[in-house]
Predict the structure.
Amino acid sequence: VMNFQRSSGLTGTQIDGIVGPTTMGWLDQRFSAGPTPAGTSPGATTGCPVIKTINVDLVSLDGSTRNPVQELDRATTIFNQCCVHFNFSGGGSEDATRTQALLGGDNILTKSTACGTATGEETSLLSGATADLGLSSRFRAFYVGSTTPAVPAYSFPPFCATGVRNMAVVTNGASIRGLAHEFGHLLLNNGAHPANPTNLMSAPGNPPGEQLSTTDCATIFANA
């Protein structure tokens, strides 16, 4: 319950592990597919006139030790603050042989180092996994053991204008908010990391922030 409260943007004494009216309102909104009313208690949801849903493909490659479905659920709880949910639409896993074929002979993804470019391995991964697993969702998240250069997670927002846009990569070194953080970059369509450590889009930290501001949510909802 406390994890759910934290991922819903609650803070301080609001994170109490009790399913009171505030938490119940967030739960109602989290599991609703339609309009939800605003709550009246401190920290309560502002309600949703409509809830937008984004389909996501999840792909695990050899070497990844994470649970993509569980992390997608956490991302949905976080973006519930903005009346946006994610739906696990498709995907699957690639075995060691296929992973090595897609990633140049090993299970380490060579990543791009500049916006607007993609490495051969990134392009191979997207096109190969799409053909193997029939990927068709708007967002595609790939779970790999590690990257070179090493980063916890990264993504390709539309403004980067590459053929792999709306693709996210999460490694074993990412935080629990890694997937949600990268979805934030995709929906905010920028690469900014605000200084506020409680914000989802802040740079990786401990504990990682999972709040989204009113301004964040307005952009996220418009782009969802």
The helical segments are 2-7, 21-30, 68-79, 96-102, 120-133, 178-188, 214-223. Strands lie at 52-60, 84-93, 108-110, 139-143, 146-148, 153-155, 167-170. The CA atoms of residues 53 and 85 lie 5 Å apart. The two ends are 27 Å apart (CA to CA).
